[in-house]
Amino acid sequence: MVSPQTTSPGHEPARVADATPRSPVYRILPEAAWPYAQLARLDRPIGTWLLLWPCWWSIGLAQIHLGGGMPSLWLIILFGIGAIAMRGAGCTYNDIVDRDFDARVTRTRSRPIPSGRVTVARAKAFMVVQAAVGLLVLLQFNPFAIALGAASLLVVFAYPFMKRVTYWPQFVLGLAFNWGALLGWAAVTGRLDWAPVVLYVTGIAWTLGYDTIYALQDRTDDLVIGVKSTAVRFRDRTHLWLRGFYAATIAGLVVAGLMAGAGWPFLVGIAAAALHAVWQLRTLNADDPARCLRLFRSNRDFGALVFAGIVADSLLRAGLT
């Protein structure tokens, strides 16, 4: 068994390569807890935001569909807790499955399992704890939403293996990461309609865009070790594909919103998000990993602009602004 290490050479505490600079995790938590926070990606919260935005978009659009008003704060909080827990559990599971690949990639070899700071057995136990928290959140919803949420586990379990068999693992990630577009609506209304289905498909296009940008960081290493991704598949045509994904995202958001009954405040939010997407595409340098990481993280702001438009529309519709 590999003995755990909590410090790197020079007695500096071990941090993962792509952690958010000056993350509060490293100031708040004791050093012994750092490897588990890293497994859960608490020091890299962007993934939680990307998982959460489709949930909140869907809750907001469902509120518009029901006549407007402030989206349920209780559901907003529950989905926030659930996103943290289930993203953490999913990332821990992914790290367990990918530990051999991660040890051979520059960006990921500092992660807790390949670096030897957490054993596989302890990582599995930690994953179960996080999944239990997610289950407790899910059980607060109506029966239809509970069943719908449980169905997402099939996609979650399949995702880590996709990079071995297809150049489109980002598509499978989109299936998993945007399930909240269905679940949020179901939690509000107790059913599904066409608007959340369109929102779900739209979220998949968005994931294909931002996760291709993310995968560009590892394209050189992935080509050497045989890992598949859209970044490897697209090569010199990456910008063209990204333009298509983001265009589909904007168009899909407009259609989903109009189907839910949204009006001009929502469209203003979408216009702002479209400008943000244009900025991403114009400033992307596929050969600059640091730039790719920054632009990937900026999709948190894209999601916030969309949500702001949804909430403003819902409040205006109910005469609460």
Describe the structure in your own words.
This protein has one domain (33-317): UbiA prenyltransferase (Tetracycline Repressor, domain 2, Orthogonal Bundle), CATH 1.10.357. Helix 3 packs parallel to helix 10 (180-189), helix 8 runs antiparallel to helix 9 and helix 10 (180-189) runs antiparallel to helix 11 (194-215). It is globular and about 55 Å long. With 321 residues, it is an all-alpha fold. Strands 1-2 form a two-stranded antiparallel sheet. The chain is built from 17 helices and 2 strands. A hairpin with a 3-residue loop joins strand 1 and strand 2 (12-13). The protein has helices at 25-28, 34-39, 46-65, 73-97, 99-102, 120-138, 143-151, 153-162, 169-177, 180-189, 194-215, 219-225, 230-234, 238-260, 264-283, 289-297, 299-317; strands at 7-8, 12-13.
The portion of residues forming beta strands comes to under 5%
Rg, please? 20 Å
Helix count, DSSP H or I runs of 4 or more residues: 17
CATH topology: Tetracycline Repressor, domain 2
Number of strands: 2
Distance between the first and last residues' Cα: 60 Å
Layout of helices and strands:
Blueprint: E1 7-8, E2 12-13, H1 25-28, H2 34-39, H3 46-65, H4 73-97, H5 99-102, H6 120-138, H7 143-151, H8 153-162, H9 169-177, H10 180-189, H11 194-215, H12 219-225, H13 230-234, H14 238-260, H15 264-283, H16 289-297, H17 299-317
Antiparallel strand pairs: 1-2
Helix pairs in contact: 3-4, 3-10, 3-11, 3-14, 3-17, 4-6, 4-8, 7-10, 8-9, 9-11, 10-11, 11-14, 11-16, 14-15, 15-17
